[in-house]
Specification:
With about 350 residues, the protein is of the alpha+beta class. It is about 25% helix and about 40% strand. The protein has four domains: about 80 residues, conserved putative lor/sdh protein from methanococcus maripaludis s2 fold; about 90 residues, Efflux pump adaptor protein, beta barrel domain (Elongation Factor Tu (Ef-tu), domain 3); about 60 residues, RNA polymerase II/Efflux pump adaptor protein, barrel-sandwich hybrid domain (OB fold (Dihydrolipoamide Acetyltransferase, E2P)); about 60 residues, Helix Hairpins, CATH 1.10.287. Helix 2 packs antiparallel against helix 3. The chain is rod-shaped, with a radius of gyration of 41 Å.
């Protein structure tokens, strides 16, 4: 019995060694790809909002009830155009009162001038009449200006972006009734993470996409970087000039890619082929681990700067158990997902 068990054990050991040897030396099925040439772009991603370069609030300098509104949101207006009026009845009466006083002072000055020519009154009386007229006219101008504050006019040509006020509503002094976009094209304001801001510079090219316009790509340029960041959000505000904002509207959200590096004829491999800074190559039916120096890394493609010949066969998705010198069997790409 002992001899029989010894023989059985020997056979089992030999079978195990044979299986291990077969597993070690059996060809490994891999899918290979070739490197390609194409653009390599390194970009900083940020989310931004389309906004006017200049947005002016239009408010009354005096309080009153809104009695007339002549424009609404989305209207194009011209400089000097009347937009709305607040109730100015009280100031209208005040203007009439001061206008009457000014007319009386003007007539009194004329009489004093006639009397002074006939030497009937002293020069001091003439000077006093002239001062009274000047004071009355100054008070009248102030009342007219205060009345004018109740009429809201466009300070420039532009577009009414927002209207806050209904007819009959009381409007406090200084409260904006309209917001006007004017004087400059649209821009994008984006928040860039603080770790990326050292790589952002004025004049940098920006590629923009808007979900509302999925078939369009917009090109912009960094025009301003705010010197103070937000310590809570840990971001810096970046302004992006839009030379041609065709189709974009104020308030739209856009994805902004700030181009850091761009090379048109880069050597590219699938990002899945990289494993700890190296690629697995197939040559003469054998595997070889090839360290490489990478450049721009993307989700799908990675740039190879050094260490890879153009005619190399690269394992597309290497597993962790690959080893140098192993025999391989190349399988077609369409069967890569099969076991």
């Amino acid at each position: 019995m002992s001899k029989k068990w010894s023989l059985t054990l020997t056979i089992l050991v030999l079978m195990s060694l044979g299986g291990w040897f077969w597993w070690r030396e059996a060809p490994v099925a891999v899918t290979v790809v070739a490197p390609t040439r194409g653009p390599a772009v390194e970009a900083i991603y940020a989310t931004g909002t389309v906004e006017p370069t200049v947005m002016l609030p239009i408010a009354s300098r005096a309080a009153g009830n809104l009695i007339e509104r002549l424009v609404d949101e989305g209207d194009q207006v011209s400089k000097g155009q009347t937009l709305a009026r607040l109730d100015d009845a009280d100031l209208a009466n005040t203007v009439q009162e001061f206008d009457a006083r000014a007319r009386l002072a003007r007539l009194n000055l004329q009489r004093m001038q006639e009397l002074a020519q006939r030497k009937v009154v002293a020069t001091v009386d003439l000077d006093q009449a002239r001062a009274e007229l000047e004071a009355a006219e100054a008070v009248l101008r102030r009342a007219q200006a205060q009345r004018g504050f109740l009429t809201l006019s466009a300070p420039a040509d532009g577009l009414i972006l927002r209207r806050d006020g209904e007819v009959g509503q009381f409007i406090p002094a200084g409260q904006a009734v309209f917001y006007l976009s004017c004087c400059a094209p649209l821009r994008v304001t984006a928040d860039v993470d603080e770790e990326d801001i050292p790589r952002v510079r004025v004049g940098q090219t920006v590629v923009l996409h808007a979900d509302a316009l999925p078939d369009q790509v917009f090109e912009g340029e960094v025009s301003q970087i705010t010197p103070k960041g937000d310590p809570v959000a840990r971001t810096f505000r970046v302004r992006i000039r839009l030379p041609d904002p065709d189709g974009l509207q104020i308030g739209m959200t856009v994805d902004a890619n700030l181009i850091v590096t761009e090379r048109q004829d880069a050597l590219l491999v699938p990002s899945t082929a990289l494993q700890k800074g190296a690629l697995w190559l197939v040559a003469d039916g054998k595997l070889r681990r090839q360290p490489v120096r990478t450049g721009v890394a993307g989700a799908l493609r990675t740039e190879i700067l050094d260490g890879l010949p153009m005619d190399a066969q690269i394992v597309a998705m290497p597993s962790e158990d690959l080893r140098d010198g192993a025999t391989v069997r190349i399988r077609p790409p369409d069967t890569a997902s099969q076991p």
